[in-house]
């Protein structure tokens, strides 16, 4: 019996050696199998970020950010310049030799003097700002000393002018905050910052329009302060810049809000119909 076992063992060994195949043990197979199974399970159960930003969506966000930045630049240009309103009296307001034209914005007031002889004789009001003349600009005194300014024997409304300037500053601050949120959303790759950015841009656009309304009311109040001196007033190009900027940032805010939605509104409103072939 012992000889039979020895012969069988030798046959098994010689068979394995002749085949030249190394058979791993069952324990090693189980260990490798368990590690591979855990690795596969770990790969399957790895959570995919539902709040992430795809490449297509990132391109749309950058394009909308360019729209918002354009609005910010127009706002800075309009707020920083003094061509909000132009005031033009008659040619004979001071004397028959020179006439005066004024224009001002949120911070500064400028006057320009023209020679009456250089203008058309049929023209009743003083020349426009694009003509050559002597210019003089000063900041409003109520920002420094608290005093008001007298222009054409009229006084601009101090409270309304300051209020319109404050609305413009708050609007610019919200635009900067919205831009920071968009930059963080793109750099971090998450949609979380899109909603606060959209709120910031929409509120900034609304404040810009409120600023324009308040400033226009201040101009009307200024003109009504003394009816004895007729003035021709016209809103200038700085107001146009600020108005376009308000529209751009509101549109950008709405687009950011649409991009922050978990679904596409276009596909939600117009679902694709499955065509049977």
UniProtKB/TrEMBL annotation:
One of its GO terms (biological process) is regulation of calcium ion transmembrane transport via high voltage-gated calcium channel. The chain crosses the membrane at residues 63-85, 162-186, 193-215, 235-263. It holds the Pfam family Claudin_2. InterPro entries: PMP22/EMP/MP20/Claudin (IPR004031). It is found in: Membrane. Gene3D superfamilies: 1.20.140.150. One of its GO terms (cellular component) is L-type voltage-gated calcium channel complex. One of its GO terms (molecular function) is calcium channel regulator activity. Its main location: membrane. Keywords: Membrane, Transmembrane, Transmembrane helix. It comes from the Eukaryota. It is a multi-pass membrane protein. Residues 29-53 are annotated as: Disordered. Residues 36-46 have a biased composition (Basic residues). This is Voltage-dependent calcium channel gamma-6 subunit. It comes from Culter alburnus (Topmouth culter).
């Amino acid at each position: 019996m012992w000889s039979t076992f020895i012969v069988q063992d030798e046959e098994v060994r010689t068979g394995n050696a002749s085949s030249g195949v190394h058979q791993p043990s069952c324990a090693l197979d189980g260990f490798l199998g368990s590690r591979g199974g855990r690795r596969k399970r770990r790969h399957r159960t790895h959570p995919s970020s539902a709040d992430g930003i795809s490449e297509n969506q990132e391109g749309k966000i950058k394009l909308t950010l360019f729209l918002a930045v354009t609005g910010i630049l127009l706002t800075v240009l309009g707020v920083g310049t003094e061509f909000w309103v132009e005031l033009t009296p008659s040619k004979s307001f001071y004397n028959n030799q020179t006439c005066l034209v004024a224009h001002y914005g949120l911070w500064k007031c400028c006057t320009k003097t023209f020679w009456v002889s250089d203008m058309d004789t049929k023209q009743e009001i003083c020349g426009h700002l694009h003509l050559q003349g002597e210019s003089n600009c000063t900041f409003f005194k109520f920002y420094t000393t608290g005093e008001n300014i007298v222009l054409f024997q009229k006084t601009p409304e101090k409270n309304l002018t300051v209020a319109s300037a404050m609305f413009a500053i708050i609007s610019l601050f919200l635009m900067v905050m919205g831009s920071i949120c968009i930059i963080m959303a793109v750099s971090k790759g998450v949609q979380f910052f899109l909603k606060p950015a959209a709120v910031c841009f929409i509120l900034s656009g609304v404040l810009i329009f409120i600023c324009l309304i308040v400033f226009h009311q201040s101009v009307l109040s200024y003109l009504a302060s003394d009816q004895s001196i007729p003035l021709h007033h016209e809103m200038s190009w700085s107001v146009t810049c600020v108005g376009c900027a308000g529209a751009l940032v509101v549109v950008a805010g709405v687009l950011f809000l649409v991009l922050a939605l978990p679904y596409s509104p276009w596909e939600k409103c117009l679902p694709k119909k499955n065509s049977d072939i």
